[in-house]
Design a protein that fits this description.
The longest helix is centred in the C-terminal third of the chain and has 17 residues. By secondary structure, the protein is an alpha/beta fold. Strand 4, helix 6 and strand 5 form a beta-alpha-beta unit. The protein has a single domain, classed as Vaccinia Virus protein VP39 (Rossmann fold, 3-Layer(aba) Sandwich). About 35% of the residues are buried. It binds S-adenosylmethionine (SAM). S-adenosylmethionine (SAM) binds next to helix 2, helix 4 and strand 2. The site of S-adenosylmethionine has 23 residues, from helix 2, helix 4 and strand 2.
Length: about 240
């Protein structure tokens, strides 16, 4: 069980062992691992499946934040090949792989930072993100969740599949190590690095609610899946 004492002990040992490993810039990290990326992520297979199963079937247009090579999209398109997707990712090599896999699909890729990209207003049936947002501090996620809420249609859904901290101690420990590592290496504020800083479910839900979204479902698995809806219109059926 993730919340066990043993999990935290192992995490602390891992942080000690990797204390001298330098942080890598986000896009470089994924480019350097592209070859084995999908094999590595196979451990999350059931969560990708679950993500597609709860995805509202009537959605026509979706925005995927940090889509990478599109493992979540593989499953969603398997269910409904006509769904129009805009996938945003700052790693050009991950997007190239996605395009290569899905040449026949209604797909637009945007090689940009999702904090900077204009999502539009009242535009999407669903915004999704899988295993990307746990690399950012809550201060940044707060503004992003507000932007997501504004960009959804009334009744639209944000579906987040992500790494969730098992307890406050995990969240606080990873945050402090992340900030210390950045400081030690004098990493400029505007440079994204690959390091996991997940929030607890309680804190993740609070940010979503603060942004104007209503959390409707939480599914636990290898990744935690949170469904949050905008407004009062009936949701599109799953
Ligand atoms: C672990 S991968 C997940 C990819 C895909 N969603 C999946 O589950 O296979 C995280 C992705 O988020 C992207 N990413 C991280 N920060 C980003 C940002 N600020 N803007 C756009 N993409 C970002 C990375 O480049 C990477 O492709």
């Amino acid at each position: 069980m993730k919340s066990s004492k043993e999990y935290m002990q192992n995490l602390k040992l891992w942080l000690q062992d990797t204390a001298d490993v330098p942080l890598e810039e986000m896009s470089d990290f994924f480019t350097n691992r592209l070859q084995d990326y999908e094999e590595h992520m196979a451990a999350w297979e059931k969560s990708y499946q679950m993500f597609a199963e709860i995805f509202p079937a009537a959605c026509q247009s979706i925005l995927d934040l940090g889509c990478g090579t599109g493992l979540e999209l593989d499953k969603i398109w398997h269910k409904n090949p006509d769904i129009e997707v805009t996938g945003v990712d700052l790693c050009a090599d991950m997007l190239a792989r996605l395009l290569q896999k899905h040449q026949d699909k209604p797909l637009t890729t945007v090689c940009e930072d999702y904090f900077e990209y204009d999502f539009g207003y009242g535009k999407w049936d669903a915004v999704i993100s899988f295993e990307s947002l746990h690399h950012f501090l809550p201060e940044r996620k707060r503004e992003l969740y507000r932007k997501i809420c504004g960009s959804l249609k009334d009744g639209g859904t944000f579906i987040l599949g992500d790494y969730i901290a098992c307890c406050d101690e995990e969240e606080e420990l990873l945050r402090s190590v992340y900030l210390k590592k950045r400081e030690q290496s004098a990493i400029p504020e505007n440079c994204y690095v690959h390091f996991d800083i997940p929030l607890t479910l309680e804190h993740e839900k609070a940010l979503l609610q603060d942004a104007g979204l209503t959390v409707e479902k939480v599914l636990d698995g290898e990744a935690t899946i949170i469904m949050a809806r905008k407004g009062t219109a009936p949701s599109l059926e799953g």
